[in-house]
């Protein structure tokens, strides 16, 4: 079968529009860039992309685990709420005076050790967000025909995971512009308080729904 560019365009467009909506990932990347520097923010972006890739792979296989076991979705939902609450409290408790640095460690091991927590934090932010599981399940179910070849579907998944990483990395780079970064640094305390409130509000919204 020839590649269905129309279907690909619909899937890619719907996915990118969803990326434009700021969520927990956006605030996490923004804070990581301001507080810890560019490389930790890129590591966080990679973790988020890997979490999205996991949900994409699950949707592509057609294994509807969340439909078969509603308890699994409930556990994911409440774990996500607790994680967002933890992030919100972390932001609220910040003194707004954390250093901004992009200094690279001298050793590769130390470099990885410095970035690994941010990679994990990004992965947890993405994997514990119930919206991601529902979004990809609905996206693939609504826009991709069952007759679409597996190779073409895999290409869709690779494209979306790559776009998630590229978009989040772009956010990290944009926040790091000298003038913008200086402004963020001056207002870091207020930004962190606002981000904390947003995180707690999202957690409350998920819990209420």
Q: Any key phrases for this structure?
A:
single chain; mainly alpha; 10 helices; 0% strand
What does this protein structure show overall?
It is a single chain. The protein is mainly α. It is about 80% helix and about 0% strand. The chain contains ten helices and no strands. The protein has helices at about 5-20, 25-35, 40-60, 65-70, 70-95, 110-125, 130-145, 150-175, 180-185, 190-209. α1 (about 5-20) runs parallel beside α8. The chain starts with a helix and ends with a helix. Mean pLDDT is about 75; it is low at about 100-110.
Brief summary:
This protein is an all-alpha fold and 209 residues long. The chain has helices at 5-19, 24-36, 38-61, 65-68, 70-93, 108-127, 130-143, 150-175, 178-186, 188-208.
Strands, helices and their partners?
Layout: H1 5-19, H2 24-36, H3 38-61, H4 65-68, H5 70-93, H6 108-127, H7 130-143, H8 150-175, H9 178-186, H10 188-208
* Count of alpha and pi helical runs: 10
Radius of gyration: 18 Å
* Approximate helicity band: over 70%
Provide the low-confidence segments as ranges: 98-109
SSE pattern: HHHHHHHHHH
The largest β sheet comes out as:
none
Computed structural class:
mainly alpha
Give the termini separation.
Answer: 42 Å
Annotation, overall tally of beta strands: 0
Give the amount of beta strand, in percent. under 5%
Shape, principal axes of CA atoms:
globular
Quick check: average pLDDT? 76
